[in-house]
Write a structure and sequence with these properties.
It is built from seven helices and no strands. The protein has helices at 16-28, 38-51, 57-71, 84-100, 107-116, 131-134, 137-141. Helix 2 (38-51) crosses helix 4.
């Protein structure tokens, strides 16, 4: 395995405020593009699921991320931008993670525990999907069911 293929440790968040800044910046489309990392995706999704019950995440996540991508100069096409299957796979993982946590724990503890878990890794969806299916245009454009293993179900 080359050095570039070695897994990297997740960048953890210092406090709840840092996570809320990511989530609020995503919703307002003001988050700097450089801050929209893998960890930020999972932190924002966890915040939305856990703390923003006024938002129907399953219904709205595609529009939230797609409009953010456009606002920061990105595109949503067959090769880049919003990827529906990856987003929905991680959303299932986030929901399962949140369901197992104490609802009173600090948001930062919930997010950092997710990031440190297998479900927080960058390659986690490949436990449920073949690479060919996950990175196909149909999977980017809409949700496709996994072909290797079922997605987690919240408890």
């Amino acid at each position: 395995m080359s050095e570039s293929e070695l897994p990297t440790a997740p960048r953890l968040f210092p406090d709840d405020a840092a996570i809320r800044r990511i989530g609020e910046g995503l919703l307002a489309r003001t988050l700097p593009r450089a801050d929209w990392t893998h960890e930020a995706h999972l932190a924002a999704t966890t915040w939305l699921v856990r703390d923003r019950r006024d938002i129907d995440v399953e219904r709205d996540i595609a529009a939230i991320i797609s409009s953010y991508n456009v606002a920061v100069g990105g595109v949503n096409d067959d090769a880049g931008g919003y990827h529906d299957t990856i987003t929905r796979a991680y959303l299932a993982g986030v929901r399962a993670h949140v369901a197992m946590r104490d609802a009173a724990e600090p948001l930062v503890d919930c997010v950092n525990a997710l990031l440190a878990s297998p479900a927080g890794s960058r390659d986690w969806p490949l436990r449920c999907y073949s690479r060919a299916l996950l990175f196909s245009v149909p999977a980017r454009r809409g949700f496709v069911p996994p072909d290797l293993a079922p997605l987690p179900v919240p408890c």
